[in-house]
Amino acid sequence: MSTTSLPTPGAAGTAAPRQPVKSVALAEPRGFCAGVRRAIGIVERALDMHGAPVYVRKEIVHNHHVVAELEKRGARFVDSEEEVPEGAVCVFSAHGVSPAVRTGAARRRLDVIDATCPLVAKVHQEALRYARDGRTILLVGHADHEEVEGVRGEAPDHTLVVESEADVAALALPDDAPVAYLTQTTLSFDDTARVVAALHRRFTDIVGPAGSDICYASQNRQNAVKALAHRNDLVLVVGSRNSSNSARMVEVAREQGSAAHLVPDAGHLDVSWLASATRIGVSSGASAPESLVRGLLDRLAGLGYTHVEVDRGTPEDVVFALPGRLADPGTGRTPSTPLADEAL
């Protein structure tokens, strides 16, 4: 853990009363995961190589700042591949898409660049395998999340979405039905473990992935937030309101008994939250750029929270390569992409 030092309050020779030092504990790891960096980098390289506009189906990642920055550079975000002009470049978001979307893109002869996170793509392959085995797939996740929509689309007639232990109890399946479970990658690890345990209690013929489908970055950030919650009066998580993994981090902190809030950017900080907080923990979701964290730290410093220490958790060194077609034709290497490589 590293710390920064502050001047001692009070002039020399005075007996000024000691005030509690307002401090910030900054979680590490935080912010961009490997899948997010890859997805943003794909859009940046597509713009470099093809020029504007480059169309992106849905938000490339769930962060308003990232989307706004890419729009400034010429990205055009659309809700459906049907909105993309025939033959145009179209990037699929990090959350993945269903086979029906791929069919629609092929029908329009779109030049598709797939930015699906490799960890999400793994869940798609697991869904296909379990469907081929004749099992009903019980997909643990949020039904309206784009990732769940994509995975469910691999075997729509064989997939049921469950969000809670109550959903497990309500499933209209016999207890000896052959089933398999999969999970959305950005869920709360603890909540998901309870749902999976309920599935195992309910069904006698159940299989699942060899390891957790919840991505390493979600787990690491949730673990770091738990540590922050135990040692601070308040936890602030930088992330957009539609970011599933950021919202789960707030929930995890609250489950540990800490006050916690989601902060899309420094302008959304409500100073009333700080009324009784001397120690504040700060982290950020896997789709939040470091510039937003720095903005929040600057705002907190202006409010007296000038002492910052880094709370180091699990180191991360995962890197997902960009598609080979985006490499520089001359060198065969992928050049740096400013937004994706921020704070590296």
UniProtKB/TrEMBL annotation:
Keyword field: 4Fe-4S, Iron, Iron-sulfur, Isoprene biosynthesis, Metal-binding, Oxidoreductase
Cofactors (names): [4Fe-4S] cluster
InterPro entries for the chain: LytB/IspH
Residues reported in the UniProt entry to bind dimethylallyl diphosphate: 62, 95, 145, 243-245, 287
Superkingdom in the source lineage: Bacteria
Pathway: Isoprenoid biosynthesis; dimethylallyl diphosphate biosynthesis; dimethylallyl diphosphate from (2E)-4-hydroxy-3-methylbutenyl diphosphate: step 1/1; Isoprenoid biosynthesis; isopentenyl diphosphate biosynthesis via DXP pathway; isopentenyl diphosphate from 1-deoxy-D-xylulose 5-phosphate: step 6/6
Binding positions for (2E)-4-hydroxy-3-methylbut-2-enyl diphosphate per the UniProt entry: 62, 95, 145, 185, 243-245, 287
Entry binding sites for isopentenyl diphosphate: 62, 95, 145, 243-245, 287
Protein name as annotated: 4-hydroxy-3-methylbut-2-enyl diphosphate reductase
